[in-house]
Design a protein that fits this description.
It comes from Bradyrhizobium australiense. The chain is α+β, with helices and mostly antiparallel strands. It is 44% helix and 10% strand.
């Protein structure tokens, strides 16, 4: 029968470095020289430990204890071997193992959640991640996780995370009472997904020693179930929305909402659109820093209806805000429009991201294939092997045809007359 004992090798830096990580359950590799001294191999960590039993009491077997000596490669094999020999010596003399003999290094205790976020934020900025992504993370950090700002990351346990998830859910529910999405579930899930990313960064990228092997922010059964929000308009809702749009007094805001519907762009991409990125010859609009950062920059083909929209807003901008309209496509006093919601007597049933959802729905109704639609919406296509082979720049003419088809379908469905 095969042996069930853990393998034994001489634990050296070279030997430990060459050991593969465990594919599933953690594995134990025992040292061939010192009894009780072993390496705990997980999916992404290798930790030196020493296991022993306390003395018998009244003839009864003692309890099993484990001392965590250090994590490879932050602690060398020689250093932890010296610790293991010290434990052996203490036990041989009949002396107790001091409490905290091999505690988490002071550096880890000093790494607060705020310090970990600062390090992760610096890495995101270096990678060129978008300003809005970093701002969203900062908002989650400030709004939902302020009680943990000065808390050592290594001290946050799974139980703390579970309790905080429930607390965030309740706080967000009360803060948003009476609003459309007031359950607090999405806020809690989003905040702890952010915290999970911070923890993974300092654990895996910075290789911070002393952190537990399992991420306390892991999903498991922690997160609330989520479902996509069905906020987009169908064909039947377009005429009523068009009538609401025409009732708006501000011509720049009218064109803003229409362009958002015709383009399917994210809110910030439209609000911060610049004339310098408009190419009337192709015609296209360049988005240099969309969601995902500069590496996701793309060129949006423009349909005839979209060009007409830009012509109208350019004329209105020069009339109302001549200085601001030199830079911004959708100008406002001192800069560009900053809010898409309509306040006052005239309101729109769908604004902002709901218009992006509407674009997705209406494009499908217009018969646009999935690949071109994903590219037009600047969604990642790398997840699909076949799609990832597509040469996106070479598809520009085809993408403009698709954009023209979508715009024609939307304007016809709205029964647009100007």
């Amino acid at each position: 029968m095969p042996s069930t004992q853990a393998p034994r090798i001489l634990l050296t830096d070279k030997a430990v470095k060459g050991l593969p990580f465990a594919p599933a359950k953690p594995q134990i590799v025992r040292d061939s020289k010192i009894a009780g001294f072993h390496l705990w191999v997980g999916k992404s960590t290798k930790t030196y430990r020493f296991q022993y039993e306390t003395p018998r009491i009244n003839g009864r077997r003692g309890s099993t204890k484990v001392e965590w000596l250090g994590e490879h490669p932050h602690a060398s094999a020689d250093e932890v071997r010296a610790k293991a020999l010290e434990i052996v010596a203490l036990r041989a003399r009949g002396e107790p193992i001091p409490r905290g003999f091999a505690t988490v290094p002071d550096a880890t205790q000093a790494l607060t959640f705020k310090a970990a976020w600062d390090a992760y934020k610096a890495a995101l900025e270096k990678q060129g991640r978008s300003i809005r992504t970093i701002a969203d993370y900062q908002d989650k950090f400030d709004r939902h996780l302020k009680d943990w700002h000065d808390k050592p990351l290594a001290s946050i346990k799974r139980e703390d995370v579970v309790q905080e998830h429930a607390a965030i859910t309740e706080r967000a529910r009360k803060a948003r009472a009476g609003q459309k999405y007031a359950s607090g579930k999405y806020a809690a899930n989003g905040a702890l997904r952010f915290a999970r990313a911070v923890w993974n960064y300092v654990k895996d990228e910075l290789e911070t020693p002393g952190l537990p092997e399992r991420n306390p922010f892991r999903s498991g059964k922690l997160f609330h179930k989520e479902k996509a929000r069905s906020t987009g308009m169908g064909v039947a809702e377009l005429p009523a929305w068009w009538a609401q749009l025409q009732a708006l007094a501000n011509p720049i805001r009218r064109e803003l909402h229409l362009f958002m519907l015709l383009s399917g762009l994210r809110r910030t991409d439209v609000l911060t659109a610049r004339w310098a990125n408009f190419d009337p010859a192709r015609p296209s609009l360049r988005l240099p820093a969309p969601k995902g950062g500069e590496e996701r920059a793309f060129e949006l083909p423009l349909s005839t209806a979209m060009l007409e929209c830009l012509e109208r807003v350019n004329e209105a901008g020069q009339t109302y805000y001549p200085e601001e309209s030199k830079t911004w496509i959708f100008p406002a006093p001192g800069g560009h429009i900053a809010e898409v919601k309509e306040e006052g007597r005239q309101k729109l049933s769908h604004t902002g991201h709901a218009l992006r959802h509407s674009f997705r729905t209406l494009a499908a109704a217009a018969g646009i294939d999935r690949l071109r639609l994903k590219i037009l919406m600047n969604h990642a296509i790398n997840d699909d092997v076949t799609d990832a082979y597509a040469n996106v720049p070479a598809l520009f003419a085809s993408l403009r045809d698709a954009q023209e088809q979508i715009s024609a379908f939307i304007t016809k469905s709205m029964a647009v007359t100007r």
